[in-house]
Design a protein that fits this description.
The complex is a heterodimer of chains A (120) and B (108). Chain A is mainly β. Helix content of chain A is 0%, strand content 50%. In chain A, the strands form two sheets. In chain A, strands 2, 4, 5, 6, 9, 10 and 11 form a seven-stranded mixed sheet that branches. A four-stranded antiparallel sheet of chain A has the order 1-3-8-7, with no helix packed on it. By secondary structure, chain B is an all-beta fold. Helix content of chain B is 0%, strand content 55%. Chain B has strands at residues 4-7, 10-13, 19-29, 34-39, 46-50, 54-55, 63-76, 86-91, 98-99, 103-107. In chain B, a hairpin with a 6-residue loop joins strand 8 and strand 9 (98-99). The radius of gyration of chain B is 13 Å and the shape is globular. The chains are: A mainly beta (120), B mainly beta (108). The interface between A and B is medium-sized, with 23 and 22 residues.
Chain lengths: 120, 108
């Protein structure tokens, strides 16, 4: 079965960098891209970006463009996100999710979420 | 950017009742590229509907989606206890992808 397993919770200081991994299994890795979303406490889901696991092409929400990056390791079937210059309002649960296809970016399988706390 | 406005913010209903959730887009979503998700605390979101009206794999048929253009609806025909959750719509016709603010369906 399709599984996305994310790395564990993180506590970070303001100004630090965050990296979260998303290990995919149960399907052919290159057939569907991976999106990243987050949900701050009491807030709605927010899309951050998407990466093609086939080509490595990326697409970002403009809000994050300057400090957010994504990479993939096809041999490890893992996608990584990095968010730099963390602020307290980056505290959220971060989710990776598989897009239905490289064309249609709705998300049919999700990781379990990674809780990130940014605090001095 | 396409803004999605969900209403109502909270819906208080009893098990067995019908739930009607609305998602309105700031401009027309061609090709009906709209999805609905269910989200429970401490869990990952779950895809319910895509293409505005196509049920995702394994989703009970009490969940249905309808609408086109700027107005979309998720209907739960008879609420089961496990259906009390927050529901989000998401458009995927245009980047940035956007989600609505959510509708919380709570037990009355």
């Amino acid at each position: 079965q399709v599984q996305l397993v994310q790395s564990g919770p993180e506590m970070k200081r303001p100004g630090a960098s965050l990296m979260v991994s998303c290990k995919a299994s149960g399907y052919t890795f290159s057939t569907s891209g991976i999106g990243w979303m987050r949900q701050a406490p009491g807030q709605a889901l927010e899309w951050m970006g998407w990466i093609s696991t086939d080509t490595g092409d990326t697409n970002f929400a403009q809000k994050f463009q300057d400090r957010f990056s994504m990479t993939r390791d096809t041999s490890a079937t893992t996608v990584y996100m990095k968010l730099e210059s963390l602020r307290s309002d980056d505290s959220a649960v971060y989710y990776c999710a598989r897009s239905y296809s490289d064309r249609w970016w709705f998300f049919d399988h999700w990781g379990q979420g990674t809780l990130v706390t940014v605090s001095s | 950017e396409i803004l999605l406005t969900q209403s109502p913010g909270t819906l208080s209903l009893s098990p067995g009742e019908r739930a009607t959730l609305s998602c309105r887009a700031s401009r027309a979503i061609n090709t009906n590229s709209l999805a609905w998700y269910q989200h429970k605390p401490g869990q990952a979101p779950r895809l319910l509907i895509y293409g505005a009206s196509t049920g995702a794999s394994g989703i009970p048929d009490r969940f249905s989606g309808s609408g086109s253009g700027t107005d979309f609806t998720l209907t739960i025909s008879r609420l089961e206890p496990e259906d009390f959750a927050v529901y989000y719509c998401q458009q995927y016709i245009d980047s940035p992808l956007t989600f609505g603010g959510g509708t919380k369906v709570q037990i009355k």
